[in-house]
Fold this protein.
Amino acid sequence: MISQNLALYNWNNGVIMIAIFALVCIVLVGILINFMMGGKKADNTEEEEV
């Protein structure tokens, strides 16, 4: 009966680590999208030598 009430694992630390990891992933994806949208357009109007 006592073993049913015994907490074998504390989930708080794992939940906090998963939340931090998800936050870091979201920030990195946001930075990547920002770089992709704000980059300079490639200018392909170079004169060709004949």
Observations:
- The chain has a mean pLDDT of 80.
- The CA atoms of residues 24 and 36 lie 18 Å apart.
- The helical segments are 2-5, 12-38.
- The two ends are 91 Å apart (CA to CA).
